[in-house]
């Protein structure tokens, strides 16, 4: 199987220039990321960061092999999504829609992104663990994997070390970046970028049992469908509620990495190519207001203009009103 290997593309660097009146935390992640040099594989940048050179990075793509587990997982989901079209039921479609919102908006956007990656609010331990499990059912890896990749993306956005920059190609940023085995020591990466999660036994457990949760949900859907309707409905619930739904969640999330760094408008002049793209904003529950997020990554609110609807932020506000979350980083009223 051929996998696209990105060629080196020079990237410009510069200071952040934000023309609007904004808070001093602009473009500063709320979670401090510890980055240590990798002996023999890094070079010193003028900023003081230790990063791989493009030649070293591309050589690693060519010789590191492929992540066959990831490739198989994504391929099976797409095959199952196509099969779902031949086993349609209305209850299967309804199940897919509900789980798409639950795992996409609540699990990935609210849990993985705004809570675990950026700590935009605080909540009870039981709520945090519930969000982590729902996020796992979003099919994008464990919180350890997702958060470490995302924090690295923010630290090196659209630079050589960005895991999924469109400057390496549209399809690379969309999903091909997941295929090469570029990390010889994932534990070291977790230690650098997700140390807070790595210290918790629960998150280590989720990382090791990621695939098991999908089997549990799949068997549950099949059992409910067969018991309440018939065998065909049980199969339909699995195909729609697992395979088709996960395929949609994956591609919508990937659009934030790809499309929202290529098309759209910018409210803020950041050092990357992040954009606000309205249709990704709607599909991805508010994540498509990506330029706003890169300017203020610590804020729970991604929609900064009146028309930039952010469903995930509205959910956080509702949870705050009923006392499930607190210390929400809203941003200054009337500005961002």
Indicate the multimeric state. single chain
Q: Low-confidence parts, pLDDT < 50 over ≥5 residues?
A: 1-54
Helix/strand-derived class?
mainly alpha
Q: Report the count of strand segments.
A: 4
Count of discrete structural domains:
1
Overall outline: globular
Secondary-structure element sequence? EEHHHEHHHHHHHHHHHE
N-to-C span: 45 Å
Beta-strand fraction estimate: under 5%
What is the number of helices? 14
Q: Roughly what is the average pLDDT, rounded to an integer?
A: 84
The major beta sheet can be summarized as: 2 strands, antiparallel
Question: Gyration radius, to the nearest Å?
Answer: 20 Å
Topology, element by element:
Elements lengths: L42 E2 L5 E2 L2 H10 L4 H17 L5 H28 L4 E2 L1 H12 L6 H13 L14 H5 L11 H8 L1 H4 L2 H8 L1 H19 L2 H27 L20 H6 L6 H6 L15 H11 L3 E2 L10
Antiparallel strand pairs: 1-2, 3-4
Helix pairs in contact: 2-11, 3-4, 3-5, 3-11, 3-14, 5-7, 10-11
